[in-house]
TrEMBL record:
InterPro entries: RNA_pol-assoc_fac_A49-like. It comes from the Eukaryota. GO terms for cellular component: DNA-directed RNA polymerase complex; nucleolus. Pfam families: RNA_pol_I_A49. It comes from Thelazia callipaeda. Keywords: DNA-directed RNA polymerase, Nucleus, Transcription. This is DNA-directed RNA polymerase I subunit rpa49. The keyword Nucleus applies. Residues 440-463 are annotated as: Disordered. The lineage of its organism: Eukaryota, Metazoa, Ecdysozoa, Nematoda, Chromadorea. It is found in: Nucleus, Nucleolus. Residues 454-463 have a biased composition (Polar residues).
Length: 463
């Protein structure tokens, strides 16, 4: 910071500027009429070696109503650089600057109003442009580009003059291969001179639905070309971006409670271990809330033949977006009364229950994104379903043997798909997962293999 008394001559010099110097003895005592009588200069880019050599000038922009700007000069300054300063507009920013003069003997402080001028290094031509007048506007409509043809002609001329024999030979060959306007005219005439003008009918191949690969109506849609387990199933199967944006705030508010409060409210004890830090991935809260609602819904419908409307909305106290998504995915249709005395209900068959259960297991595997592991016993206990059924659905989803597991348990041959094998875990893994039987997703599900029994083999040999 450099502080000097603002004492300048009121008479303008020949170049429309006034001198401001730290040497007060060489400056007249007349001062410019101003609210502030002190000025503080801040040199941003460098520090003055000798403050007494600094000479400050005030300039007025030519042909402009803008205020003044200042320059600082030294004896050792380069001719290409100018220290240009502008006054800080403290009134607009809602603050003001002052100099505190403290008497060391008495300890009293006197505050003097001042102005702050910040100096920066600018090129000399920019400084001259400010003195001479406003900058000219750039005309962006001018085309300064070079045509591709003219650039190619210049390159070919340079190759012809300075290129080697090999480059010249290659250039001559490329010139011979060029298609000129005369060649195009001859080609156009020969095309339109053709006598064959009859349009032949094009056969449109119709896709036959019987030949298409069948898709399961129970399992979630899988990416059969996935290279890693994390790419087999996507979260878009369960919630769209619009549904996530509508549900995210409610889900975060619901799961922000303590573990004890969530369990007392009926939240799944198994899912409490999946919550983690929701600030890193807020979308995870939406899927956890949806999975908890799906688990509660499966407990209701697992041993029923009908889903009553009153029971559905009474037992499932979740946001409307979650309930609408469950109805849309697993129980399409409307609640219908058989007669005037009956309650509105939806019939439920085994396919609806298996579809809900498979999606619950799939979302449970996806939320365990790092390991893609499904512990069999805890999920069977949480859902109230047999472990064999959980095993078969995990097999159909694309799970198989985990490498950290050593004693292999063979699945029953009645399973429809053999891409999964459930195994016994080690002691540490069993304590962490709460089970000794786990299934791990390693890839897309494989189609079931056809197995021929003894009777079919005997019939084939007889024929």
């Amino acid at each position: 910071m450099v502080h000097w008394k603002r004492t300048i001559d009121t008479a303008e010099t020949s170049n429309n500027c006034s001198m401001i110097s730290l040497d007060e003895s060489s400056v007249p005592n007349t001062s410019v009429a101003s609210k502030h009588s002190n000025i503080v200069a801040r040199l941003t880019n460098n520090i003055a070696g000798n403050i007494q050599e600094l000479v400050f000038q005030r300039h007025k922009v030519a042909n402009s109503k803008r205020g003044y700007f200042y320059s600082a000069k030294t004896s050792h300054q380069s001719s290409k650089i100018v220290h240009l300063g502008q006054e800080e507009n403290s009134e607009i920013e809602g603050c003001d600057y002052a100099i505190a003069v403290v008497n060391k003997r008495t300890g009293k402080a006197e505050f003097l109003p001042t102005k702050l001028i910040c100096f920066e290094n600018v090129p000399a031509h920019d400084f001259e442009a400010l003195l001479n007048g406003p900058n000219k506007k750039i005309d962006y409509s001018i085309d300064n580009s070079i045509l591709r043809e003219s650039m190619a002609e210049k390159r070919r001329a340079l190759i012809t003059e300075f290129g080697s024999a090999k480059r010249n030979k290659a250039q001559e060959a490329s010139l011979r291969r060029q298609i000129k306007d005369e060649t195009l005219a001859v080609m156009m005439q020969s095309v339109f001179a053709s006598t064959k003008t009859k349009e032949e009918p094009v056969e449109q191949k119709v896709e036959i639905s019987m030949l298409a690969k069948p898709e399961s109506s129970v399992l979630p849609k899988a990416n059969m070309e996935a290279k890693s387990p994390q790419d087999v199933y996507t979260f878009s199967i369960f919630l769209s971006d619009a549904e996530i944006s509508a549900l995210q705030s409610e889900a975060l508010q619901y799961l922000s409670k303590s573990r004890k409060e969530l369990i007392e409210k009926g939240f799944s004890l198994l899912l409490c271990n999946f919550i983690g830090d929701l600030t890193v991935n807020p979308k995870r809260a939406c899927y956890l809330l949806l999975l908890d609602a799906m688990i509660h819904c499966y407990r209701i419908v697992s041993k029923r033949r009908f889903l009553f409307e009153a029971l559905f909305f009474k037992e499932l106290q979740y946001p409307v977006t979650v309930l609408t998504k469950i109805r849309e995915m697993f129980f399409p249709g409307e609640f219908v009364k058989d007669d005037t005395r009956s309650k509105p209900k939806i019939p439920i068959n085994l396919m609806h229950k298996d579809r809900l259960l498979s999606h619950v297991l799939c979302l449970g595997i996806m939320l365990n994104h790092e390991n893609m592991i499904l512990p069999i016993s805890p999920w069977a206990k949480e859902l109230g379903a047999p472990e064999l059924k959980i095993t078969k659905l995990a097999t159909a989803l694309g799970c198989r043997q985990d490498m950290v597991i050593y004693n292999i348990l063979i699945i029953s041959s009645k399973a429809k798909c053999f891409h999964c094998s459930v195994s016994f875990a080690t002691t540490s893994e069993g304590l962490r997962l709460g089970t000794t039987r786990v299934a791990k997703l390693v890839g897309p599900p494989q189609p079931p293999k056809k197995r021929y029994g003894r009777q079919s083999t005997a019939r084939a040999s007889k024929s």
